[in-house]
């Protein structure tokens, strides 16, 4: 438990959205290890290896954090702010995926240093496509920082 | 999404700029490409100085790292610390695979980092993916 | 004098050995006796005499005599103290104690304390022999010291030369990629966009240009990979089945295409760098898949414990390797087949060899043409390696 690899940390409190996201990522074989937390406090505990996750191996950081904004306990914006303020987590790729269309939320997120902001589509198929595109872009195409923690995409051997 | 989004392409290699323009010309987003060859011109463009007083504000910056006069990382440093400019997403698109370049770029606030693939097909895919992701799925600040 | 006497004198003169001696002696008559003995023993002596510890110390600061001859008993101080002074000054000069009758016990004690030898005043004839032996020993010590210095220098030079080479290979391959990419990309565009407008010859030219460019791209990438082996090495305990799993994941496409089956079971924990070891297994298993014969590849990865290391084996049922090529396969860019027969640049095994050797192991292959191949290599075992992880069969 403490040493498991995590490809994506999904911070989401809607069960429907969790199910659809997990299903899509697994179906498209984009990520093997997706860890779900349902509120901002748990997300912070997980990433800072504190509270109930105090024993977690701090070297095992997810390669991507998918973050909803409307969360219980601590909201997504606050999670983002704290992640960017801490040197252990400030280079983590964070993609906000939220139902909010508020221009204020978009602007604030980019100000705080979110990597990208995505509105959750209402349409089932579009939602799937969005998750798939996010997975491909951030796990396969993008190169994350290796500050001792995030793993590089695996070198694929050519047949 | 905007009808015809604007990309500021900061790259001094005309061969790569040519390839990039080719790919984007064929896409449905009809992006406008504005190319500058180094970091100094990039900053001038973004600050609308000198010959760039009429410049538009780009929706996305695609930034090479190794350029004469002012490199990509200097651009990142200036832009991402300026509250008026820091919300513009910057995609670092460069030949360097060096770990220190990747880390440093993120430290300076790059939104993502993509190594230019050596293979033509992969290069085209990468540029297409960049455009598709940022203009087809992402919400951009106004 | 007669001619023979002159010749004798001349011969004796020739064989005289130069010697500078420092005498620590308070008795003038005794020092003269010693010097005469030395001359009789074939030495051409230049000497100085000191009596006190202070004078001795001072003399040491300005001169380096070949030998020190010290009286055991000097009134206010002992010859043994001279030894102590030599030691604190860090001087390697033979010191021979000369004295009147003292018990054998004390003589042994003196030598234990560092005196080169001990000669009695009524047996001075021994002195020249003793001195010659002391000088020989000193020379041997000197020669050994020089050899060690030379060795250290050569090792440092070699290390620097290696670093330079690695740096060169890295920079060269890194900087070569950029213009190469341009050549490959635009030649390919030419081919794709203008093929219809050109005649057969032109298309052929473009085809060969493109092929060359693409091949050079992989060559440079391979060279880069090869030169990178050794940078940022980590040492951790690794479960080798997890390492093999990761390698297999990277080989997904090739495994599916070939229908290859890979068996591995109960592999041990080893010490090493994860990235490098994944590359090692990936290259070996990848080769096993690539060089298959008519049958679908069946590959077995196993391990056997030797004293402080594990001997791994990656065996396949492929085309095998002829006896005369068993060593050449590990040489960089060395290939045994044409590109039309099997793709590749001949870097994979060179990389494997480099990785294994950097882990302190060795790699070799056992094979016969047409009968598959077993690539074997050793890796250091994990020091806290328990026995619980493998079956009895493996304890061969």
UniProtKB/TrEMBL annotation, chain A:
PROSITE patterns: RESPONSE_REGULATORY (PS50110). SUPFAM superfamilies: CheY-like. The modification 4-aspartylphosphate is found at residue 68. InterPro entries: CheY-like_superfamily, Sig_transdc_resp-reg_receiver, TCS_response_regulator. Keywords: Phosphoprotein. The keyword Phosphoprotein applies. GO terms for biological process: phosphorelay signal transduction system. Residues 7-135 form the Response regulatory domain. Pfam families: Response_reg. This is Response regulator rcp1. It comes from Candidatus Sulfotelmatobacter kueseliae. The gene is rcp.
TrEMBL record, chain C:
SMART domains: HATPase_c, HisKA, REC. InterPro entries: CheY-like_superfamily, HATPase_C_sf, HATPase_dom, His_kinase_dom, HisK_dim/P_dom, Sensor_kinase/Photoreceptor, Sig_transdc_His_kin-like_C, Sig_transdc_resp-reg_receiver. Residues 20-136 form the Response regulatory domain. It is an enzyme of class 2 (transferase). Residues 171-383 form the Histidine kinase domain. The keyword Ribonucleoprotein does not apply. It catalyses: ATP + protein L-histidine = ADP + protein N-phospho-L-histidine. The modification 4-aspartylphosphate is found at residue 71. It comes from the Bacteria. Residues 137-164 form a coiled coil. Keywords: Coiled coil, Kinase, Phosphoprotein, Transferase. This is histidine kinase. GO terms for molecular function: phosphorelay sensor kinase activity. It comes from Candidatus Sulfotelmatobacter kueseliae.
């Amino acid at each position: 438990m403490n040493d498991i690899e995590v490809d994506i940390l999904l911070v989401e409190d809607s069960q429907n959205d969790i199910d659809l996201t997990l299903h899509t990522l697994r179906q498209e074989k984009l990520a093997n290890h997706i860890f779900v937390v349902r509120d901002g406090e748990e997300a912070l505990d997980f990433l800072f290896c504190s509270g109930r996750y105090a024993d977690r191996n701090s070297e095992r950081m997810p390669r991507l954090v998918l973050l909803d904004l409307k969360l219980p306990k601590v909201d997504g914006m606050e999670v983002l702010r704290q992640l960017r303020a801490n040197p252990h987590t400030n280079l983590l790729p964070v993609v906000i995926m939220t139902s909010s269309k508020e221009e204020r939320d978009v602007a604030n997120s980019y100000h705080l240093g979110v990597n990208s902001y995505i509105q959750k589509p209402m349409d089932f198929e579009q939602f799937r496509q969005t998750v798939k595109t996010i997975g491909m872009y951030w796990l396969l195409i993008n190169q994350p920082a290796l500050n001792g923690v995030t793993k590089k995409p695996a070198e694929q051997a050519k047949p | 999404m905007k009808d015809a989004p604007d990309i500021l392409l900061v790259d001094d290699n005309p061969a790569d700029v040519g390839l990039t323009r080719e790919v984007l010309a064929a896409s449905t987003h009809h992006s406008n490409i504005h190319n500058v060859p180094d970091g100094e011109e990039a900053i001038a463009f973004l600050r609308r100085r000198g010959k760039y007083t009429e410049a538009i504000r780009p929706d996305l910056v695609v930034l090479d790292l190794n350029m004469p006069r002012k490199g990509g990382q200097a651009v990142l440093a200036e832009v991402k610390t300026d509250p008026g400019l820091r919300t513009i997403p910057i995609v670092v698109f460069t030949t360097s695979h060096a770990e220190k370049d990747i880390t440093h770029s993120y430290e300076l606030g790059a939104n993502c980092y993509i190594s230019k693939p050596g293979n033509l097909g992969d290069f085209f895919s990468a540029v297409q993916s960049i455009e598709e992701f940022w203009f087809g799925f992402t919400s951009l600040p106004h | 004098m007669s001619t023979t006497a002159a010749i004798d004198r001349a011969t004796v003169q020739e064989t005289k050995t130069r010697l500078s001696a420092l005498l620590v002696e308070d008795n003038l008559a005794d020092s003269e006796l010693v010097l005469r003995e030395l001359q009789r023993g074939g030495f051409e002596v230049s000497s100085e005499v000191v009596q006190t510890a202070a004078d001795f110390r001072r003399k040491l600061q300005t001169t380096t005599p070949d030998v020190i001859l010290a009286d055991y008993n000097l009134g206010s101080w002992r010859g043994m103290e001279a030894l102590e002074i030599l030691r604190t000054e860090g001087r390697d000069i033979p010191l021979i104690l000369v004295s009147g009758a003292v018990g054998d016990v004390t003589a042994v004690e003196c030598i234990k304390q560092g005196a080169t030898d001990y000669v009695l005043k009524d047996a001075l004839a021994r002195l020249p022999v003793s001195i010659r032996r002391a000088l020989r020993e000193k020379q041997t010590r000197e020669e050994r010291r020089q050899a060690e210095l030379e060795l250290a220098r050569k090792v440092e030079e070699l290390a620097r030369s290696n670093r330079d080479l690695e740096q060169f290979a890295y920079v060269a391959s890194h900087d070569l990629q950029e213009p190469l990419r341009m050549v490959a990309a635009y030649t390919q565009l030419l081919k794709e966009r203008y093929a219809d407008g050109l005649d057969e010859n032109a298309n052929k030219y473009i085809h060969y240009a493109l092929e060359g460019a693409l091949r050079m791209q992989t060559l440079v990438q391979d060279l880069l990979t090869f030169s990178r082996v050794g940078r940022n090495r980590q040492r951790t305990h690794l479960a080798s089945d997890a390492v093999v799993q990761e390698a297999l994941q990277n080989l997904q496409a090739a495994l599916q295409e070939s229908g290859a089956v890979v068996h591995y079971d109960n592999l041990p924990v080893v010490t090493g760098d994860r990235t490098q070891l994944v590359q090692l297994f990936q290259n070996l298993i990848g080769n096993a898949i690539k060089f298959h014969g008519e049958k679908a590849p069946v590959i077995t990865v196993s391990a056997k414990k030797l004293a402080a290391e594990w001997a791994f084996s990656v065996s396949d049922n492929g085309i095998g390797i002829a006896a005369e090529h068993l060593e050449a396969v590990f040489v960089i860019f060395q290939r045994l087949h044409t590109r039309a027969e099997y793709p590749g640049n001949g870097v994979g095994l060179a990389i494997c060899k480099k990785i294994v050797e950097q882990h302190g192991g060795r790699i070799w292959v056992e094979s016969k043409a047409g009968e598959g191949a077993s690539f074997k290599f050793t890796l250091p075992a994990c020091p806290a390696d328990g026995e619980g992880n493998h079956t009895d069969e493996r304890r061969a």
